[in-house]
Structure formats: structure tokens, C-alpha cells
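This week, look over our next protein:
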Amino acid sequence: MDEYLTCEDDVIIKIARPNKAINIKKKDEDMLIPSCFFILKCRKDSDILPEYLCVFLNSGMFTDAIRHEYSGSTVKTLKLSVLENIEIPCLSVEKQKDIIKVSNLISNEKQMREELMRKKDLYYERMLYEMLGGK
């Protein structure tokens, strides 16, 4: 049963499209992972950082590499063998850390833009409501 529970630094990826990978943090340990996800574990002696693996798996480069590797007629899914054979760019740890930082900045900016749009929508809705005579 332990093989279905998350551990810190695991990377889980959804096997159906769209594939989305997340890196498990300490606070998310011991969560049961359903069968529609693969759990990827970076070896301790590996030069690949789990956060970098996650960035790569969420990248267009990965999406392009697996585009024709799906199976199934109704729900297109990935096979574990596809992930086992994927070429991951092996960069220095420092370069991986730089990529992780940039990815985090991009993610934060997207969240701020989405929050700004949500607030603008509320503002415009309220403005029109008041213009129409609402109080």
C-alpha cells in the first residue's frame, strides 16, 4: 500500500490528457494517489531535481515528445513505458535551479493576472449595476 502514498519530492503526473505534473512537498506526504496518476521518484543519487522534473513534464517540450504516444480510443492515456523512455535534458543543478525559479515567477505572475482579472470583472459588474440604478 505504501507505493500508492506520496512522499516528499515525489512527482505525480496525470496519465490522461492534459497531463499535469506536481511536486509533492513535505506537507502533502502520505496522500493516497488514485490510479489515474503515475508516481515518479527521483533517486537520491540523481542529478535531476524533482522540481525540475516537474517543470519539464509540464513543458511544451514534453508535450511535443509524447504527442503521438497516447493509447486508448475514448480516453487517451500515457503508458508508463513512454515516461521511462523519455529523454530529459540533463542540465547542471544550478541551471535546473534557475529554471525552477523562472517557472515559479511565471506561475506567480499568472496567478496575479488571474486575480486582477477577477477583481476587474467584479468592479465592472458593480459599475454597470450602479449605472442601471442598483444600489
Notes: The radius of gyration is 20 Å.
